[in-house]
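Severity: low
Component: inverse-folding endpoint
Summary: output formatting inconsistent between runs
Steps to reproduce: submit the following structure tokens with default settings.
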């Protein structure tokens, strides 16, 4: 095991920020980048700048809609660590994109708006993180505004998100009365000054809160309230345990205001101390450790037309093990062929550039002319596939037709490539070979239509179809009478996904229930990997 490799691995922390739209993810990202010195402009920077900047907004449709469809990568250095933030689209129609990005992070920060509390999108995303046991830190944002009581909010977090929290900082008042935070982690007080919002002040040491100096600083009643709160905290919440956090069993909570750059450094300092380095990843053969000499990685995101002057795509690869080198031959396991990359990109705060080598935890962007598909594995020759990039059942389904017979080839190619990118899922009906496209949000149909027209010169029409959910079928014995009957009775609802897996397209929740009762040996799954 090369010690230089281990050193690089120990430097890296790759994470994602998840939240409901408007909770402050972009603002927090920006402040983190400021601390890393990765961007210079402070204060006046509009929160959406990063989202709307040229680096993460590639398609015209995104600009038109003002929605960041892209999942970009932002990297910065802080306290000797290389931190990679994988940005996740907040829009619910692109939730599947976010789910896939979560397969490439080693930890997450969950941002919650103190006034709104736990919102729908946060619930869904946290659920995925919980299932995968991803370590999570929680940041309660917008403390400069009037919001929910801190204890009530933590109750809500525990109940709705099914988490076990331990506060590592605690607010002193909120809204107009917001005075600052007590940093339980570093045992100091940071005062908030509304006039001097953007300046990061030094914390005032407070080993012992009974020190009467506290009354002088924050006033008697706020001091007493803080003392009471902290005493109560000790009794109510488990104390911090790093291993429990790393195992996904305990979630530290921080309070602050991203907009005012308040409480953000505390979060970042704790993150740098406790967040995991690149983790091992399971493949179909074995668990792959980051410190293995041989390179391996997987594709979690494909983005088209990053540069409008070039039509090719960029495949985002998470390095799992070893060292990735420019111009070295790697093995594309699904295609069974060797490939080398002369211009791999690494990502920085506001740019990408060609790099010679990358290490576990890093994300590299490889130019691709159509060889990659979400979930593809690259190795130095080993025939293994990384697991854990499942497709979830779409919620919308429509037949797709080629509207221009002269452009059949373009149409086929366009559909094929868009599905490889994971824009939507394609199902082919078994009995008549018709194509059905399933999506998480209705917006994707417009994205597909637009992109087919602009990138492939093809036209599409859609037809409604009554499907409730896609159920991936698992059966132990394909020759059983029960399975044969299931296939016969349901033949008009049977389809294949892009990986040729058998899928039952059920028209209602009731049908699913009845089918499960009638054919108990046929297992139905709402996720493609089981
Ligand atoms: P998102 O990426 O999670 O969608 O949220 P974003 O950071 O874009 O923030 C959403 C809104 O919340 C923005 O206001 C932002 O300025 C505001 N915000 C973020 N953090 C704080 C905070 O700590 N306190 C307060 N009071 N507001 C905060 P906007 O008016 O929608 O956008 P903008 O015009 O200010 O950019």
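Observed output (run 2 of 3):
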């Amino acid at each position: 095991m090369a010690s230089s490799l281990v050193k690089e691995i120990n430097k890296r922390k790759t994470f994602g920020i998840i939240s409901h739209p408007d909770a402050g993810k972009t603002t927090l990202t920006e402040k983190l980048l400021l601390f890393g010195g990765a961007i210079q402009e402070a204060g006046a920077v509009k929160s959406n700048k990063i989202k709307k900047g040229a680096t993460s907004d590639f398609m015209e449709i995104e600009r038109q809609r003002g929605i960041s469809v892209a999942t970009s990568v932002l990297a910065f250095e802080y306290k000797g660590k290389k931190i990679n933030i994988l940005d996740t689209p907040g829009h619910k129609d692109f939730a599947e994109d976010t789910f896939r990005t979560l397969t490439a992070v080693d930890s997450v920060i969950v941002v919650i708006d103190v006034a709104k509390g736990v919102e729908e999108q946060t619930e869904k995303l946290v659920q995925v993180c919980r299932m995968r046991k991803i370590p999570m830190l929680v940041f309660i944002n917008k403390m400069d505004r009037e919001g929910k009581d801190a204890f009530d909010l933590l109750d809500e977090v525990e109940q709705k998100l099914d988490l076990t929290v331990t506060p590592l900082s605690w607010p002193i008042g909120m809204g107009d009365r917001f005075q600052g935070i007590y940093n339980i982690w570093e045992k100091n007080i940071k005062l908030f000054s509304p006039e001097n919002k953007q300046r990061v002040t030094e914390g005032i040491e407070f080993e012992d809160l009974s020190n009467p100096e506290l009354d002088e600083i924050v006033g008697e009643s706020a001091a007493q309230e803080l003392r009471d709160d902290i005493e109560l905290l000790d009794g109510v919440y488990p104390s911090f345990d790093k291993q429990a956090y790393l195992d996904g069993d305990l979630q530290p909570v921080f309070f602050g205001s991203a907009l005012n750059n308040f409480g953000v450094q505390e979060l970042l300092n704790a993150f740098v101390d406790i967040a995991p380095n690149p983790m091992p990843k399971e493949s179909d053969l074995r668990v792959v450790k980051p410190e293995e000499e041989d390179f391996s990685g997987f594709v979690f995101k494909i983005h088209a037309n990053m540069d409008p002057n070039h039509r090719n795509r960029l495949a985002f690869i998470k390095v799992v093990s070893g060292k990735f080198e420019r111009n070295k031959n790697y093995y594309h396991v699904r295609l069974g062929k060797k490939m080398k990359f002369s211009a791999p990109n690494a990502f920085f705060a506001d740019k990408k550039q060609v790099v010679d080598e990358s290490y576990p935890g890093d994300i590299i962007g490889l130019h691709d002319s159509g060889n990659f598909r979400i979930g593809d594995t690259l190795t130095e020759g080993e025939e293994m596939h990384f697991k854990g990039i499942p497709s979830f059942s779409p919620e919308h389904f429509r037949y797709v037709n080629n509207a221009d017979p002269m452009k059949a080839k373009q149409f086929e190619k366009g559909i094929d490539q868009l599905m490889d990118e994971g824009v939507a899922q394609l199902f082919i009906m078994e009995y008549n070979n018709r194509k059905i496209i399933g999506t998480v949000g209705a917006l994707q149909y417009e994205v597909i239509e637009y992109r087919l027209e602009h990138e492939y010169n093809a036209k599409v029409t859609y037809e409604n179809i009554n499907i409730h959910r896609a159920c991936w079928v698992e059966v132990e014995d394909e020759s059983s009478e029960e399975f044969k009957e299931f296939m016969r009775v349901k033949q008009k609802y049977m389809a294949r996904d892009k990986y040729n897996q058998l899928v039952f397209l059920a028209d209602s929740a009731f049908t699913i229930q009845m089918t499960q009762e009638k054919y108990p040996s046929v297992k139905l799954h709402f996720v493609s990997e089981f």
